[in-house]
Structures are given as structure tokens and as C-alpha cells.
Amino acid sequence: MALLESVDFSNLDKVKLVMDWVTFLLKKVGHQRLLDVLEYYVDVGWLSRELKDELFNYSKGFGGIGPKKTDFKLSIDDHITSLKYIMKLSESGMNEEEFEVLARKLAKLGGLEFGS
Prior knowledge:
The relative contact order is 0.19. A two-stranded antiparallel sheet has the order 1-2. It has one domain. It has four helices and two strands, in the order H-H-E-H-H-E. It is mostly helical.
């Protein structure tokens, strides 16, 4: 089971969070590589496969945001930002202090390298 299985798109607060997150990712990697990033988040257990598809389809309405080049590398801070969005969308109940502990552990692991 993924940290985030689905998003209630009838909830305007959730839609705003999704828009902000997708915009953040598009600015970093562009639309050409967004699907790769979302697939990676499925692989690490952060997103369900169904939500990945839904988010990618949703992103098609954002136009040409982001770099056109396909060589990019997300930093650990970029992944932590994504995880923060995921945790907010999932309403995990994790408080800021707990999240910071998790973020520090992820940074130490350094196991979230993605990109070429």
C-alpha cells in the first residue's frame, strides 16, 4: 500500500495542493520526464499506480511549464518537498517535527537519487 492511494479532487484545498505540487515538479523536470518521476514515486511506495496515472493526465493541462531538456537530477530536497506534499494530501497526521525527523533520515540515506 502506498502512502498516497488517491486524492479527493472534489476538495478544493486538495486540488490546490495537487496543482502546487505538479507545478513544482514540472518546473524541475518538465512534462517529458514527469511520468518517470511519478513512476519512481510508485516504486518507492509513495504513490499508487492509479494515482500516478491520474496525476500525469491532470498535468497535461499545465502546458509547457518547465525545462525542455531531458537531462536533470532531482535533489534530495526536491524529493523531500514532494514527500511533504504527499503527506499533506494523505492527511497522515504526521506533525512537522515527525516529518523533519523523517526528512533527516532520508537525507542521510541518500537513497532517493533519480535522474540522469
